[in-house]
């Protein structure tokens, strides 16, 4: 019996790059188009897990295992949005400036028989206190666009982060330690 087939339920180039680090190439990319609105009162951890599960279900296939993930930036109980405009990115950066926040990266692996395995990575990230000029400069970079919490750790923002405790790959969008464990448990050949 050969290696199981993997379908990645994400159009994110970052997730494709990260999964390649495990020596796994998805047989297909099947982005899941779901409503990503948090439920009223939903906690960040629960929201991240639900999004990963729903994406895995939405991309379900009889042809292989579906890997889905979701990354949530949380300040306390508050789920920060994906920044789609400069005003949102600026609000996120002003909120995160000089304080710690959590990045929750949930993954779900759906087997062809419908069984779902899931994991959650939680990382603490601390930004330095950002000056107005630093925020303006980061906004001008455009790097924040479409990113949860208004920043991308794998770019310029990494120079503004004073400390990280947890999974760097989880903050980027796919926690490799947890992903490796799920894939190995499902029978994927990973060194």
Describe the structure.
- With 191 residues, the protein is an alpha/beta fold.
- It has 6 helices and 7 strands.
- It starts with 5 loop residues before the first strand and ends in a 6-residue tail after the last helix.
- Helices cover 31% and strands 24% of the residues.
- It has helices at 13-20, 44-58, 86-96, 132-141, 168-172, 176-185; strands at 6-8, 28-29, 65-75, 78-79, 100-110, 116-127, 161-165.
- Strands 1, 2, 3, 4, 5, 6 and 7 form a 7-stranded mixed β-sheet that branches.
- The chain is elongated.
Topology:
Blueprint: E1 6-8, H1 13-20, E2 28-29, H2 44-58, E3 65-75, E4 78-79, H3 86-96, E5 100-110, E6 116-127, H4 132-141, E7 161-165, H5 168-172, H6 176-185
Parallel strand pairs: 1-2, 1-3
Antiparallel strand pairs: 3-4, 3-5, 5-6, 6-7
